[in-house]
Design brief:
prenylation; 16% strand; single chain; six-stranded mixed sheet; alpha/beta; Rossmann fold; nucleotide-binding; binds magnesium ion; lipoprotein; PA domain-containing protein; binds guanosine-5'-triphosphate
Length: 685
Amino acid sequence: MSSDDEGREEYLFKIVVIGDSAVGKSNLLSRYARNEFSANSKATIGVEFQTQSMEIEGKEVKAQIWDTAGQERFRAVTSAYYRGAVGALVVYDITRRTTFESVGRWLDELKIHSDTTVARMLVGNKCDLENIRAVSVDEGKALAEAEGLFFVETSALDSTNVKTSFEMVILDIYNNVSRKQLNSDTYKDELTVNRVKVENWVNGENGETFTAMTAQFGTMLPSDKDKAVKLPVVLTTPLDSCSNLTSKLSGSIALSVRGECAFTAKAEVAQAGGAAALVLINDKEELDEMVCSEKDTSLNVSIPILMISTSSGDALKKSIMQNKKVELLLYAPKSPILDYAVVFLWLMSVGTVFVASVWSHFTSPKKNDEQYDELSPKKSSNDDATKGGAEEETLDISAMGAVIFVISASTFLVLLFFFMSSWFILILTIFFCIGGMQGMHNIITTLITRRCNKCGQKNVKLPLLGNTSILSLVVLLFCFVVAILWFMKRKTSYAWAGQDIFGICMMINVLQVARLPNIRVATILLCCAFFYDIFWVFLSPLIFKQSVMIAVARGSKDTGESIPMLLRIPRLSDPWGGYNMIGFGDILFPGLLICFIFRYDKENNKGVSNGYFPWLMFGYGLGLFLTYLGLYVMNGHGQPALLYLVPCTLGITVILGLVRRELRDLWNYGTEQPSAADVNPSPEA
Ligand SMILES: Nc1nc2c(ncn2[C@@H]2O[C@H](COP(=O)(O)OP(=O)(O)OP(=O)(O)O)[C@@H](O)[C@H]2O)c(=O)[nH]1
Ligand SMILES: [Mg+2]
């Protein structure tokens, strides 16, 4: 998101310059970056960088150009040099044949160390020295053609083609990138991804891997662990890296502390000292984002800069001070945006809604059997009987109730957002346990009594509860034990399974109790919920600086505990772990409508062909699918599922109702009598 905030897209490309010693690599770069040339420049030792910006199609493209020594003995860790490069200039000297003959070897090295497609250009430098030319233009062209490279002859001395050669490579990379549709999200994501895994070794012993955060400037780390290099760590002197360093840093990772000066200043100092990366120890456990202010866009930081927490930093510092050898391996694995956990989540949600809808239909015959002495006398007035029976255990939601519900849910959400303390979460968790327990109890007893009629008939008299069936008691005890177990283990990695089971039981139960009377109330409720969801996910950042819904769903920052108000499945293929989640509301709200429709279909003897239920189930599944599609398209940004679910369920109902001319009936369902009564007095008035 960060690059979107500035309203301008940014790209960062790494380009490497390679070729034998003294072919003029450093001079080509200094000519391009600073328009400088040095007639007696020294051979490069180690690695140097320059960042140059240019604009392509209104987008800012930054090229980070790396220059290293042509001489083998001065070259820095080769794989680190090539890592992440998307462009390369292979330079030879037209006055020295041997440098041209080495080109093949340089290309091989490039091939071995780079993973992505690299835009490559063959550069014949020193074309100002025509009189002592040893390699003809045609030879250069032929080689470039054979290897599939661009070709150009340059002179760093008189500037011929220097700019062109770099810009052609940058443009080619840009075209490659945009052609591959990497342009917007994926590629930007790669640049802004800021979580890093830090593996560490103390005296060769592998310690616990911890997480670091990279700055929004500096180079990216490889996403692949195999491509990362293990480097020794050196404590900087001074420890804050604010003034020039006296410690020897080349080829190692600098470890510094936060404070005293800007991150960017530290970065530049460390880079000037030759560090391969700078690791800053934060002054607290949390990791803050390190940004550079707008003014610093000219910044030439080309090493990765990252921050680690106090505790991990201090542990490393201590080991170094004890003269132990500390090594770090830094890499930034990427999360897949979609995980197959999504499929299970989809199945779970659709399954819950389906089961909740058909539940009473498939369990009621047996219920009737139990209560037949009560029902049979009234069987003649069928409608009354079912309605009377229903009223005992169900709650019809009224239009007013729907509005009040959404308002109180919003209030609750804001309260949660501001006061999400551990005890608040604890209370909600207990409520969740009770709800889940009750749901589970109801489901199990219903299922058992349906299988065996007599099971539920043995009763005992209890002091407070009165006449209770033994079955019910046993099941209750079981559910209680399960709830307690889950409560105690709720912070474990497998607690999600229990949470899902309880959540599903609770929702099926809620959907049996709460009922929508007709489409009028459904429309009010779902529309309110629709705006509620969109507001709290998308619009709340405008007021609260972050999405209230997403913040609440993520849970408390301090304890890492979240409120069990969603179904979740771990993202197994994600190196960062985490969960795919769906809120209870995304199941309950559409669920209420679908349950109503199922009842409507049954009460009006509608089958598969003329009913609404199959359509709505399809609509719900489609809506969820679209939600995940939205998640994917928006690069993992939390989605208000109801944005998709409401049109896909309520929308379908209304459209079908209109087409079938049944919308009126659906709209006023169950209120036909009162509305007729309403009509009667009006002529009098
Ligand atoms: N005439 C002429 N001389 C050049 C040109 N480019 C570089 N030189 C000279 O060639 C010599 C080597 O240049 P560098 O840029 O240091 O070469 P390099 O490829 O960076 O060498 P290493 O760092 O050792 O790999 C210097 O003396 C430069 O002045 C050019 O275009 N024309
Ligand atoms: Mg050089």
